[in-house]
Write a structure and sequence with these properties.
about 25% strand; Lyase, Ornithine Decarboxylase, Chain A, domain 1; alpha/beta; TIM Barrel; binds pyridoxal-5'-phosphate; single chain; 11 helices; 17 strands; disordered N terminus; eight-stranded parallel β-sheet
């Protein structure tokens, strides 16, 4: 067995059933787990991380991985290749968890609201170098009003809307950009630059479209930063990114940092975009066959939406993967079988064609794996990862957290 490339969290070993708890030095295999369970293939994760590392080196920008997908110390350390470093978070809970582990450079990449400013003050008092994003004069004013209570300066990135997909100020809207910048006037509030996330890249249908989306993201962010600079603001930070843009950008001139998160696990939405293949997806839900409805061509398993999530992110893609794509226990994709329905604790597997005669006829108790549409959503259903090696032996159990 190859050693893990990352340090395991202290005190956590694999959770396995009493039947296998002997003094044998061999690692437990998947048959020892209760299902459903969240599996993390360490070799696939390592390959995804290495691919991104090479991209970052080619693009010549700083990397600030998004830890929202994994919400796990061990995974974040693997992404960084270090015990700590600069990260992006999607909740202040993530900021708390990572700050407690010594991460001191954190961007909270969801627009800040007034009711979180007390939390921000606590993080600053702990010594965290925190960066916030906002896109309105009202949010800027609320931050400035709270800043007297800050123990240290907070960084601010103005959120830029490079695709009309979500929040942000249009890159060409100099008036709003400068009004927000002007409202950020306080000795403990530092305007650092701009941040954008071109969510429309998740709707692309070709490599050309993905490349064009990445360029649109880059150009919009740089344009917005230049508007600020022309008005006398230094705006040293230009932050862009998502997994598709990180993997498809041709060049990132003017950009200072790239963010990406889901790349670490990949998922079926990313595979549907052509960003990866199903064989790159590092997380899967281990499930057991519960029974059959032969007349309907159904195989029932113990992974419903509580395990898989209700995410149907592939529904609008050319290949709809239902609630997930079925693999055998070793992770070999069974391309014709998807989870066509998900109740709370039941998943229904059927042939993609609807052919009832092609039912997946496996005995009760047979283990299968389901690849997720959206890794962030599926992982959020579990409190830990069962980390498996290339031979599907369980190496460790890594905790993950959720909530706000
Ligand atoms: C602001 C922001 N930055 C970065 C990311 C990372 O994108 P991805 O998960 O595609 O890597 C996200 C994802 O939602 C995001 O919202």
């Amino acid at each position: 067995m190859a050693p893990l490339a990352v340090r395991l969290p202290a005190g956590r070993g694999p959770r396995y059933s009493r039947a296998t708890m002997s003094n044998t030095p061999t690692l437990p295999d998947l048959a020892t787990l209760e299902t459903p369970a969240l599996l993390l293939s360490q070799p696939r994760m390592a390959a995804n991380i290495e691919r991104m590392r090479q991209r970052i080196a080619t693009l010549g920008v700083a990397f600030r991985p998004h830890v929202k997908t994994a919400k796990s110390l061990a995974v974040a350390q693997a992404m960084l290749g270090a015990a700590s470093g600069a990260i992006t978070v999607s909740t202040l809970r993530e900021a708390d968890e990572f700050a407690a582990q010594g991460f001191a450079d954190i961007t909270y990449a969801v627009g800040i609201t007034p009711n979180k400013l007390g939390h921000v003050a606590r993080l600053l008092a702990q010594g965290v170098q925190l960066r916030l994003i906002l896109d309105s004069v009202a949010a800027a004013q609320a931050l400035v009003q709270a800043a007297d209570a800050f123990a240290a300066p907070v960084g601010v990135l103005i959120e830029i809307d490079t695709d009309g997909h979500r929040a942000g100020i249009a890159p060409a809207d100099a008036a709003t950009l400068l009004a927000v910048a002007a409202a950020l006037s306080h000795p403990r509030v530092q305007l650092l630059g701009v941040l954008t996330h071109l969510g429309a890249s998740y709707d692309c249908r070709s490599p050309e479209a993905l490349r064009a989306a990445a360029e649109q993201e880059r150009a919009g962010a740089v344009q917005a930063a230049e508007q600020l600079r022309a008005a006398g603001h230094a705006a040293p930070v230009v932050s862009v990114g998502s997994t598709p843009s990180a993997l498809f950008a041709q060049q990132l001139s003017g950009v200072t940092e790239l963010r990406a998160g889901v790349y670490v696990f990949q998922d079926l939405v990313m595979a549907g975009l052509g960003v990866c293949t199903p064989d790159d997806v590092a997380v899967s839900v281990l499930t057991s066959v519960v029974g059959h409805q032969r007349a309907k061509g159904w195989t029932l398993v113990d992974a419903g939406w509580m395990a898989l999530s209700r995410d149907r992110g592939t529904a609008a893609q050319p290949v709809d993967q239902g609630y997930g794509l079925v693999c055998d226990v070793a992770g070999l994709v069974l391309p014709d079988y998807t989870v066509i329905a998900a109740n709370q604790e039941h998943g229904t597997i059927a042939h993609r064609s609807g052919d009832k005669g092609a039912m997946l006829d496996l005995p009760v108790g047979t283990l299968l794996r389901i690849l997720p549409n959206h890794a962030c959503a599926t992982c959020a259903q579990f409190s830990s990862y069962q980390v498996v090696d290339g031979a599907n032996q369980i190496q460790a159990e890594w905790p993950r957290f959720g909530g706000w």
